[in-house]
Amino acid sequence: MHTQIVLFDGFDPLDVVAPYEVLYAGGTASGGAVSVELVSAEGPREATG
Description:
Radius of gyration: 12 Å
Shape: elongated
Number of helices: 1
Distance between the termini: 27 Å
Helix content: 25-40%
């Protein structure tokens, strides 16, 4: 399963980091069955939180 966490202007870092860590740990424990990445609707850019 491929999971994307969408970043938006004014996002709270805790709303992103916590689910990312849980999903990443799930991917590690499952041998890569779950992947996770941070994305933006505007395309690649530097995130400031």
